[in-house]
Design brief:
elongated; alpha/beta; 4 helices; 8-stranded mixed β-sheet; about 170 residues
Length: about 170
């Protein structure tokens, strides 16, 4: 009986202790390096807009029902709106001085959909008189090389390169 009491106490204490689940690290990503597509521009880049869930730092995925959800452990290093503005400024070599026209962007899709990435951005170029000079929506959906977040980020970067090159061609 004396040996059963300590054994019972040990079993009781071990069953009450918490499971030590591994703490998941939060991971932060940014777009790939912007490639210059224009030597000079006649527009400034306004901060892009996005629907609430797409403009926030958590990455967005689409489930099998088509609903969007924010991921808990994967984040952009900054808001996609800020990342896209910086990417556009570098891509188009936008000078710091005030320009006659303004390039506006609206992020429509920036999400992981199964084993694909979906990027959709609407661009509008307006003059100082606020009249639309150019307006077009670009959508790019690419298969991921593997179903991981790093492959998703690379795919988003590749989609951005394709979209920006198309935009530069259309603005010529």
């Amino acid at each position: 009986m004396k040996t059963l009491a300590p054994l019972f106490l040990i079993i009781l204490l071990s069953s009450c202790s918490s499971n030590s689940k591994k703490v998941v690290d939060k991971l932060y990503y940014r777009f790939g390096e912007a490639q210059s597509v224009s030597e000079s521009t006649n527009f400034m880049v306004q901060r892009p807009t996005a629907m609430g869930i797409l403009g926030n730092r958590p990455m967005v995925a689409q489930n099998t029902d088509g609903a969007l959800l924010q991921l808990n452990h994967n984040f952009w290093i900054d808001s996609p709106k800020i990342l896209l503005q910086n990417y556009l400024i570098k891509s188009f070599n936008v000078p710091p001085k005030q320009q006659d026209n303004t390039l506006k962007a609206n992020i429509l899709s920036f999400e992981k959909k199964g084993a694909t990435s979906l990027v959709s951005i609407a661009f509008t170029l307006v003059g100082n008189d606020n009249k639309t000079i150019f307006q077009k929506t670009y959508t790019q959906q690419l298969e991921l090389s593997e179903n991981t977040m790093s492959a998703f980020v690379k795919s988003v970067s590749k989609s951005l390169q394709i979209i920006i090159k198309s935009l530069a061609e259309d603005l010529k």
